[in-house]
Design a protein that fits this description.
About 45% of the residues lie in helices and about 30% in strands. The chain has a 3-stranded mixed beta sheet. By secondary structure, the chain is of the alpha+beta class. The longest helix is centred in the first third of the chain and has 17 residues, at about 1-20. It is globular and about 30 Å long.
Length: about 70
């Protein structure tokens, strides 16, 4: 599952990087994907929206086993 998550994140990264941010995969455990938002995404006031409505939504659409995405 980790490999699938990494592949999906690779598709998301260009959009984040275009705004000066990025996302790093920290861990995948029991359907919970742990990521670290970096660059402009770290501390951004809309980072939680990016995380839930962007990254989590896309991962859930592409990988049925993903239950939640959390920032660490």
């Amino acid at each position: 599952m980790r490999e699938k998550v990494e592949q999906a994140l690779a598709k998301i990264k260009p959009a984040l990087q275009a705004d000066g941010g990025d996302v790093e995969l920290v861990d995948v455990e029991d359907g919970v994907v742990k990521v670290k938002l970096t660059g402009a995404c770290a501390g951004c006031p809309v980072a939680s929206i990016t995380l839930k409505q962007g990254i989590e939504r896309i991962l859930k659409e592409q990988i049925a086993d993903v239950k939640e995405v959390v920032a660490v």
